[in-house]
Give the backbone structure.
Amino acid sequence: MSKKNARAGGKFNGNHTSLIPLAALVCDIAHKNPTVTKISPGFIKAGLPSANGKRRMKVTKKEGALLLSIRDNTSHQEVYIYTTDTQWARRAIASEVKKNHVLVSYSD
């Protein structure tokens, strides 16, 4: 994973600093959100069958956090976004992500 897709410091937390390209975009959007207090990237699952360029993100509300399940073309990563206002952060992040032609779905 290239260093351009690694994030550390500030709101970023955890041992995994590498991000898949779409997760890097989503995390940068979340990092700018004033209600986001912490971003915790998970493991990367690489080498998946091609999604034919269909990038997508599933948003699940948790207690004080959002779980983002992010699928890029041949990789997948989950990212926890901790926030003081899950509803507002969910709308704001999804709105910005959709501008980048990413399919967003929701699970509660």
Notes: The first helix runs from residue 21 to 32. Residues 3-107 form one domain.
